[in-house]
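Input for the complex:
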Amino acid sequence: MNMRKATQLALGIVTGVGGFFDIGNLATSAQAGASFRFQLLWALALGTILVIFLVEMSGRFAAVTRKALPDAIREHFGFSFWLVPFLVLTVVHFLVLASEIGGICFALHLVTGLPPAVWALPVAILTWLFLWRSIFSTIENSTSLLGLLTLGFVVAAVQHHPPSGELLAGMLPSLPHHDPAKYWLIAVGILGSVIAPYLFYFYSSGAVEDKWDPSYVGVNRGIAFLGMGFGSLIAFAAIVVAALVLAPRGIEVNDYHQAAMMLTDAFPFWGFILFAAIMAIACLGAGIEVSLSMAYTTAQTFGWNWGEDLNPREDARFCLTYTGAIFLSSLLILFGIDPLKLTIFTMAISAFVLPFVAIPFLLIMNDRKLLKEHANGWISNSVAAFLLVLSIVLAVVTIPLVFLGGG
Amino acid sequence: MKRLDLVRDILDTQVTDREETKMGRVDGLVLELREGQPPRVVAIEMGFVVLVRRLHPRLGDWFLRLRRRVKVRKQACYSVPWSRVLDVTPFCVTLDVEAAETPAFDWECWLRDHIVAHLPGVAK
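Predicted:
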């Protein structure tokens, strides 16, 4: 492996770790730990295994064909086939973006005391300016380096000396002793936040921006496995911290204020500020990714010129897509929608739409004319088949759970 | 001889101009039926109206009516004669045109001149 590849691998892993944790992980982890201690760790473990495979496939596709997924799927299966997944992705992008903006606004509210709605427009402008003025590698590197602050959860989890026996027991699925609807809604939310539907579409566009070629197949495998694996450790740590700090005090997370107490035991003086900083930075990084992802998907669907390295004068439609998305979604927060409720709803919707966005992706991964010897083998396809069955089950159970679980 | 399928390999494929600027996709293909001779491909079509017509003809009509109020794009359907096609690969159709001078770029140019130009400068 040459120097450039080694650097890419290291950067990719950092990106995976720094970019993994977002508002969906924060909300579902805090709720899971506070209400069910370690009992939902299995959902996170399952989601992580599946997302490692999905991200590996998506990067492999982009490296081999030098095409991003939305681009290739419209080209290959035609507009009519791609239309439904495209519309579904657009809705999910919009809701996730609003949730991330809500997260930043709430973090600012924690520090300043001003209501989150006040921050909606300043946050939208900041997110937009960052995208408008930066090239892809700046965005990738700065958000992931800042994202490493989320490792604060891991430090806190280690300081609390979690009981290893209980952690292991939590890795095996078990039935809840109380509030079954809430238990399953959080389980679905964890899966929806880890296997974020936009994630694998975004990752392939990023690989095209980084000009990957077939020699990156190995690097990609390392990034998917280590980046996503270590990234999910942060969500794992957040569940552990919530279980050891919030659960014993009987605090259930119905509001982000309650979650903000998570780090005050481990870091008495600045735990509250650290929590707000982690929340703001994780959400800003994810918000930037989601805005870009929406612009990539739209531009590729219609064949517009696209690329974060181009000047907005050269890809006006691409840049105005993320501009519009950021400002429209910030309106939800401006009008006072509760950021936590929005996030929980969005995660349930993310789980619900998984079959729509996963089916075209898994089909194209088996196209030997496109991928030749890099098409999915039996291991990837077994995981894909399992994911399909799981995603269909999720789609069926999610909506009733949202009503029963009060999401 | 290389073989390309019209629907599988050409319809919906990325279209670029001579300079490799991405200018849209092959939204439609036009065949000419000729008396006593086999039909042949005469043009590719690009435009949102072509696309929605593929979903349902009525959607196309509705879209055309809507278009009368918004006059950014000079032609709803940009039809490029097959003779202007420089190259076809499974991933790309290259046209012998300049993107900025075609109706496919009307919106791009309009947005650039009316919105992007008024937003703060960019140092990329």
